[in-house]
Amino acid sequence: MAKLAINGGDKTCTRPWPKWPITGDPERQALLGVLESGKWWYGEKVREFEGAFAAFQSAKFGVTASSGTTALEVALLALGVGAGDEVIVPPYTFLATASAVLRVNAIPIFADIEPDTLCIDPDDIERKITDQTKAIIPVHMAGYVADMDRINALAKRHKLCVVEDACHSWGSQWKGKGTGALGQCGAFSFQASKNLNSGEGGILLTDDEALADTCRSYANCGRGKDTPWYEHYLLGSNLRLTEFHAALLLAQMTRLEEQTRRRAASARILDEGLATIPGIRLMRPEPRMTRRAYHLYAFRLDRKVLGVPEDKFIEALRAEGAPVGKGYDRPLYANPLFQRNGDGAKYCPLSCPYYGRKIDYTQVRCPVCEQAVVDTVWVYQSPLLADDDAIRSIVAAVRKVAENTKELR
Questions:
Q1: Which residue in 194, 312, 400, 406 is the catalytic one?
Q2: Is 383 helix (H, G, I), strand (E, B) or coil?
Q3: pTM
Q4: Catalytic residue list contains 60
Q5: How does pLDDT run across 172-203, given as a tens digit for each residue?
């Protein structure tokens, strides 16, 4: 008789997983408070949240934005990144990491990732630096902090800016300091799937007051600090957060510390259990990362050991009731947006004269990333809030499928 659920056997994970978002009376009261106050727009609650979240991440200043995507764009604008500049980014990330670069008329240059962190590889960053490189955007993938010691050292040596894409890392710390202000500044997202969410929203963190003021100007129609309302100094945009968003985020923050600890405890159970299963490869320990906030728990499959295609293994895991998925299915440069430039790139900034070079993303290769999109498995953040027994059932499901791959051949 079949053992695997995909072939008619009993499921391993039978309990319902935690739903997301988690809401209750704090959110209800926060939203009603704003509603009844009549003060709905970019005021006290926004300022309160900016201060609270900056403090949570041990940064000095916070500037909210309409999304993590626009927060990245604002950061690049404020740092003077623009036409003709190159910005080094990883290919294993959401589109916004690279599209933000294009939106400020700069050129994304893809550097490969490390196989056991899924974060950008400092060695490949160094290989990709040219005389036109202006900035580096490390992504703290799944809450795992990129090697900020080496990245900052490279940036200092070559006089580059570092903008953290911290959109997976609410609560992560490097040597005791929160992500977001480990470089010049960092962007966070509060989109609906995120560990701290208000449906949409974002924030920039920095320890540089002048940079924070410039970021706020770009996000607030180009207005200056403490200047007349109808004076506009920069070509900014309306990227403001509302009081409703801020109130909701403040309520969600009351749960963030406990939820961060719960996800970390779940990750320890997964680490301990999955480490003993042949064919399962885990991320490497990093002692300089003094706390990790898990937006995802990621592990990789070794097809040579398991003997079956990765997609088939993941399909079997899902049939067992395990809350897993494949994640990114291609490197960013393999998206149609970038592949278009194989026929001449009839769009800026790639076709504009400021760059002065030719780039053909159809020729870009990042071998580690190209393998990672094939064999990496994600456990999503909300199931990580389940109790210990439920998390152990994920381990049991992986073990069951790994020990019965003959049923998948």
A1: 194
A2: helix
A3: 0.96
A4: no
A5: 999 999 999 999 999 999 999 999 999 999 99
